[in-house]
């Protein structure tokens, strides 16, 4: 017999699953968030769908003590989605690295690709703690596909290259992917192969953001669009990233690389950075007349939670954004 909290959780999972019923497609090739407990009632839990693979994220401080509830979550989705081929559990606060990267708890192997807005994206769901495709930037990938025809793109902190691939799918003339991790580039190249995009090795730069962007500035190389999607916090021998404190510094590193009239796309996912505070920072950057905010891009509601499914207010108000992942499109004017 279920205890009260487990029964409440399953009721919540049922209502949130029903709210997302319009996202399913016949071939089960898509990817979206089935449950975001941070907003929808259980902060330790998130559940994603990647094609026919169920991804359960356990953020509890003591994963072992949470085993029974996770087992109930697993059983619930297996019964509701009988076409699932694999379930992966990532215990993000486990001591063992392989548990943080993820363990197959039923079926297998995990899916290796998904399709989104007509574009294929390669996956390696066990590569690291993340899932190799960020679901909160789906709307940005669509914007890039629809607005980058003929452009030269620089995708910094490229991760597995999905943003750059979306731009290529929309007819971008050239996309340069910059990331410190070569394994991410390898997955990006698989995405290119899935879509029939040509692979030019010189378009994949494995290196540190700070010296590489400095070199590009010295060489006066310009792009029509630069994407700035840094991690919340990271440190290398050549510099540090802290999105809570120094977004302005990062923007000023890449703004000189954008041609006149081009775009600078900035993603800031700092959970504790209020939306209004961030907007004031951007407004200060606009004061010299060389940057202009063109639009905000929202996070999809399956990731942020729907008005009728949100149970917990965010820790910090993201308004005017709809989520702590704050995505802006800036227009650049050169001297």
- Could you name the CATH homologous superfamily of the largest domain? Vaccinia Virus protein VP39
Strand content: 25-35%
Number of helices: 11
How helix-rich are the residues, as a percent range?
25-40%
- Cα distance, first to last residue? 70 Å
- Order of strands across the widest beta sheet? 10-9-8-11-14-16-15
Largest sheet: 7 strands, mixed
State the domain count: 2
Overall 3D form: globular
Please tell me the CATH architecture of the largest domain by its name. 3-Layer(aba) Sandwich
How do the SSEs run, as a string of H and E?
A: HEHEEHEHEEEHEHEHEHEEEHEHEHE
Question: How does the helix and strand content classify structurally?
Answer: alpha/beta
> What would the average pLDDT be, to the nearest integer?
94
Strand segment count = 16
The CATH class of the largest domain turns out to be Alpha Beta
**In CATH terms, what is the fold-level topology of the largest domain?**
Rossmann fold
Q: Which segments are poorly predicted (pLDDT under 50) over 5 or more consecutive residues?
A: none
State the oligomer: single chain
User: Which radius of gyration do the C-alpha atoms yield?
Assistant: 20 Å
